[in-house]
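#data-curation
PF: Archiving a pair of folding outputs for the training set. Convention for this channel: one message per protein, sequence first, structure tokens after, nothing in between. First:
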Amino acid sequence: MNVPEMINAGQLVLKRWEPEWAGEAADAVRESLPELIPFLPWAHDGYGLPDSRTFIEMSVRGWTQGTEFNYAIFTAVGELIGSIGLMTRLGPGTLEIGYWMRTPWAGHGHMTAAVSTLTRVALTLEGVERVAIRYDAANLASARVAAKAGFAEARREHRDPAAPGETDVLVTAIHQG
């Protein structure tokens, strides 16, 4: 899969994660923990530089293996404001988008812009028929982003919650272009 390493998303730029951003990424996560901990199992009070380095190393491996394509989200002036990625874990023909936004930039349309742009790019990739977003039913912010980016709820399934704010309902929303 020929996934671009950098994507211009208007006022934002999505760039393949680089090891030198680990410190800023750790700062962004720590700053956003109150919003991340309820819905992201990897977010925890002690999140720090080692966690950030591990994520970026995993991202580099995933890109090389063709299983996930994670991007740092930057403003036009170079501020790191979040993360977004494409994952192949839902099987052939489908890419899943996962994302989080740094708290001070949440609620201003940045993630919707990033998701919309990454969806358009994903749907141009060979063999990709649809893009999915999966979120917990209690994660209203992720639900709003998915809806604003043109995703429609396709199914709900029961599962064991993995993070403290999750319910037992996982929602899958689909965009088919």
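PF: Second:
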Amino acid sequence: MVVMDRPSQIIPCGDFLLRRLRGQRDFAQVFRLTEESLDHLRPWMPWVAPHSGKSTRDLLAKAETKWARGEVYTYGVVRDGTFIGMCQSYRGPVPVGWRMGYWLHPAAVGQGTATRATAGLVAEMFALPDVEYLEITHDLANTASAAVPRRLGFTEVRRERAAPPVVPSGSGVEVVWRLDRPTPPAHGAPAP
């Protein structure tokens, strides 16, 4: 396994890829993707309430800065040159633990895309030397988001009261799933 200090900027995922956001050059696609997904996202993502051109520009500027600092890695999920979703990994409260998030355009759901995108990012994150575990957090009522960590072998580790702002369709309970770094095979032993 190659050890890197940052994940790849492009992660192939079969019929789509994850591509690092490219700042303001991605403004039109990210704005349109979010705009077309508002009704789909609003029940679960409190950050969509103030959606605007300014909030999109701010997101893209922060994505550049935080990537450079090694704090957040944000990707567009791209199929045939068009953004169909986004995913990211960001430092959690413990330096060796990272959190992950994902969302898709409503026309892209139900096709396994979120699971495959997250799997691609999981592999990239575990190629980094300082990542010991990954976590995915979602509201208890968001069963679609729960399917992704379950399919990828994450284990539910706790439920906790959601920090404000609580999502409009939410239960107020956050479910936290964890996946630990795979243990490398013993020297000389075949990989499973």
